[in-house]
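Exercise 7. Given the components listed, write out the predicted structure of the assembled complex. Treat all entries as one system.
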Amino acid sequence: MISTVIFASLAVYSWKILGFLIPDRLIGERGRLIAERMTVSLLAALVMLQGFSSQSDLVLDARAASLVVAGALLALRVPYIFVVLAGAVVAAGVRLLGF
Amino acid sequence: MSRQVISTSLSVGLATGLYGVSFGAIGSAAGLTVPAVMLLSLLMFSGASQFAFVGIVAAGGAPITAISSAWLMGVRNSFYGLRLNTVIGPRGLWRLLAAQLTIDESNAVSAAQEGPRDQKLGFWLTGGAVFVFWNTATLLGAMAGNLFGSVEAWGLDGAAAAAFLGLLWPRLKNNLALAGIGALVALIAIPLTPAGVPVLLAAVVALLPIGGKK
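Answer.
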């Protein structure tokens, strides 16, 4: 298992180092724009994945409440750490209430 | 200026670190030894890839499936690297280290800052803080095993969702349509495609001329 872990880690690292090795002049303004857009669409997908999926199923559970509260707090410009803590408290609380 | 970068970086490090407890616990519950779980956090150091890996192992999947899922989950890191290389411009061994610290959180905090100095600081501080907290928490979680195993009871999954939303938030103003389409594509793909693919499809959306500013 250790060798599988090391091989998988190297595989993941290959992506990380690749981005740093491609010369800047090959990227240009367009490349930078794409990288920026990539970050936005991936983060949006990760919010959905983390908020509404369980294995390969779509689910609506306490995490949806966390996201609603987090969104409201972000709109009120509440600092990041409190938004994250609220996410935990809301999910745990909603589950305590039996949903 | 810099004070705000420091507090944001440490907040992100701490928040992500909390979630590392659940990774450690889930990893050992999946049947991995404590050293194997720790190696994942130290060497792979990419939350989504690590969860994909132990998820496949827990489900009894083949090693090659676990490796390829973790690998596919990591594609976005090379795009973060493209951006970070121009912002940070690391040389020699620093480049190898910067690559290892290239994750969702370090890139997002860096990109949210104004000016090259704070963008640099945001990357190194967030990457370093997440690395320290994530690995410490992984060790605690792996040793505590099933004691802290209930991610749900502690609301840690809700915290992780809120954490990603918080990272996305500052970018929504200029990219609302793109974020909406990326989210929609992921939602549609989650029940239809294997783990790792929904995020990849969202990455493809970014390459298409849709949801642009103008």
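Discussion: Chain B has a mean pLDDT of 85. DSSP finds ten helices and no strands in chain B.
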